[in-house]
Design a protein that fits this description.
The chain has 2 domains: about 5-65 and about 155-410, L-arginine/glycine Amidinotransferase, Chain A (5-stranded Propeller); about 70-150, Arginine deiminase (Pentein, Orthogonal Bundle), CATH 1.10.3930. Helices cover about 35% and strands about 20% of the residues. The protein has helices at about 25, 45-60, 70-75, 80-90, 90-110, 110-120, 125-130, 140, 160, 180, 185-195, 195-200, 240-250, 325-330, 345-355, 375-380; strands at about 15-20, 65, 125, 150, 165, 170, 205, 220-225, 230-235, 255-260, 275-280, 285, 295-300, 310-320, 335-340, 360-365, 365-370, 385-390, 405-410. InterPro entries: Arg_deiminase.
């Protein structure tokens, strides 16, 4: 087995975690979609077909594709992992002291496949009462039949965000929105106890269970190489989260520089990878409307290694317009190639919304993109980038492209 390592955004992609759409997306309704962070309802069967083609494109590029639901099912076969998941899924603060122990007991008796389905897909009161008699519980008694006893995790579709591999380790991230916070349990359990990961040596930064305002999401984290990391401060990733992540990376000796871009705090700029992704060793595709952003460079004072408590941060402030130079400096390059298709403001905004900048590199100069962004795709091809198109008619409704839907665990370094 190869050691798990992600030292680049563009090195050949060897192994990746994805999550095929399932029951959790059937929980979206006009009334619940906003709380679950979706702008629209997805036609789930078509979304599954599109996701299957995405997985097939990855495999055709030589990438081993790991499916999150299968990983969770296999992880639950480990007793400690099952206890960990049960303890944190059923809580009297959420379900009340009358119902919580009975719900936990019910779930503990499910087979691992059914339990994995419950954890990700959620559970309604109607479905619960097909399994057990209704407990004497004010919490449950006051629920309507189709109210959710266990909330679904539809954003697991975007495997990039809740955990991200950075050089020789993985960060299980603290998510900014309540609808996504429980996703961290799936990854925390998988990385701790699944045989595939338990047998490998890697750093694990477990930020996801209680980091308060210090949130970081993987869509804002680009491992650009040369020991450097590029992080966007967005509506989901906070300055506190960036500084804490930098300290942990420096303490582990995993990185020696973090470049930070201060993004507009808007849903259309949800994560850095919705406006800027790397497509080869020195090239980025970038949204025309991004503008000149303030940026920062963080380095450790006195070198890397030791405890995070002992790491002090040097923070250099860059004026707007300096960001590309700061990224190039971090990569040891004289300059970057910034790829921005020429198009009118309205067309550029539509393509950015449709994830035209959210390219997933499978090798240097070879990327997977949605077919719904033809102008960006044509421009990439004209710029010498190989573009592998996958359908995104339904998947794109979730506001996440191929990079969002992938969590690389093993990449070649370039």
């Amino acid at each position: 087995m190869h050691d798990l390592f992600v030292g680049s955004e563009v090195g050949r992609l060897r192994q990746v975690i994805v999550h095929r759409p399932g029951t959790e997306l059937l929980r979206l309704t006009p009334d619940t979609k906003e709380d679950l962070l979706f702008d629209d309802l997805l036609w789930v069967r078509r979304a599954q077909e599109e996701h299957d083609q995405f997985s097939a494109a990855l495999e055709a590029a030589g990438t081993e594709v790991l499916h999150l639901d299968a990983l969770l099912r296999e992880t639950l076969a480990v007793a400690e992992a099952k206890e960990f998941i049960l303890d944190r899924t059923f809580d009297e603060r959420l379900h009340g002291p009358a119902a919580a122990p009975l719900l936990r007991q019910m779930a503990s008796e499910l087979d691992n496949g059914a339990l994995a389905e419950l954890v990700i897909g959620g559970l309604t009161k109607r479905e619960l009462l097909e399994l057990i008699d209704e407990p004497r519980s004010i919490v449950l008694h006051s629920m309507a039949p189709d109210d959710l006893v266990v909330a679904p995790l539809p954003n697991h579709l975007f495997a990039r965000d809740t955990s991200c591999w950075v050089y020789d380790g993985v960060a299980v991230n603290s998510m900014q929105k309540p609808a996504r916070m429980r996703e961290a349990l799936t990854y925390e359990a998988t990385y701790r106890w699944h045989p595939r990961f338990a047998a490998s040596a890697f750093q694990r930064w477990s930020n996801g269970l209680d980091d308060a305002q210090a949130t970081v999401e993987g869509g804002d984290v680009l491992v650009i190489g040369n020991g450097a990391v590029l992080i966007g401060m967005s509506e989901r990733t906070t300055p506190q989260g960036v500084e804490r992540m930098a300290k942990r990376l420096f303490a582990a000796g995993s990185a020696d520089r973090v470049v930070v871009l201060n993004l507009p705090k808007a849903r259309s700029f949800m994560h850095l990878d919705t406006v800027m992704t790397m497509v080869d060793e020195r090239s980025f595709i970038e949204y025309a409307g991004l503008g000149e952003l303030p940026s920062y460079t963080i380095t450790p004072r006195g070198g890397t290694g030791g405890s995070p408590l002992d790491v002090e941060l040097n923070i250099a402030d860059h004026a707007p317009g300096h960001a590309h130079r700061a990224i190039a400096d971090a990569l040891g390059l004289h300059g970057l190639r910034i790829l921005t298709a020429e198009q009118d403001l309205h067309s550029a905004a539509r393509e950015q919304w449709d994830d035209g900048c959210n390219a997933l590199a499978v090798a240097p100069g070879a990327v997977i993109t949605y077919d719904r962004t033809p102008t960006s795709n044509a421009f990439l091809r004209e710029s010498g980038i190989e573009v592998i198109e996958v359908p995104g008619g339904e998947l794109g409704r979730g506001r996440g492209g191929p990079r969002c839907m992938s969590c690389p665990t093993l990449r070649d370094t370039v």
